[in-house]
Design brief:
Layout: E1 5-9, E2 14-17, H1 19-24, E3 30-36, E4 41-47, E5 54-56, E6 66-69, H2 71-81, E7 88-96, E8 101-105, E9 110-112
Antiparallel strand pairs: 1-2, 1-7, 2-6, 3-4, 3-5, 4-8, 7-8, 7-9
Length: 118
């Protein structure tokens, strides 16, 4: 099984969440994103209930990834991390089962080249 990962596509204002991340969180209907500015950590957890800070998980593409379009979130990450607005960044995460979160160290982000189909 692949590792949990997200890709922040700044041009499209989208977060791509891979199948491994969703599986670790037991395929929840909602996701919560919490950002620790001091440590540049993004924690993603799942929920069965909608809250003011949650995002509904849309239907997933055939390969198991889901896409969440949120301009405010992607722009906030771009500014805080100093990322180039014309790039996409991939971050591998670690599942912490005792806390029920997948933790992403944004300092470890790598630039990814997008395929023509994306």
């Amino acid at each position: 099984m692949s590792k949990p990962a997200i890709r922040v596509a700044l041009k499209e204002f989208r977060l791509h969440i891979n199948y491994a991340t969703l599986s670790c969180l037991e395929n929840p209907p909602y996701l919560h994103f919490r950002y620790n500015e001091k440590k540049n950590l993004l924690a993603v957890s799942g929920s069965n209930e909608e809250t003011a800070n949650s995002f509904e998980v849309p239907k997933r593409a055939a390969h198991g990834e889901c896409y969440i379009s949120r301009m405010a979130l992607t722009e906030s990450l771009r500014r805080r991390m100093g990322w180039n607005e014309n790039e996409s960044y991939r971050i591998t995460g670690e599942f912490l089962p005792d806390m029920g979160v997948v933790l992403f160290d944004l300092s470890d982000a790598t630039i990814v080249t997008q395929s023509v189909s994306e």
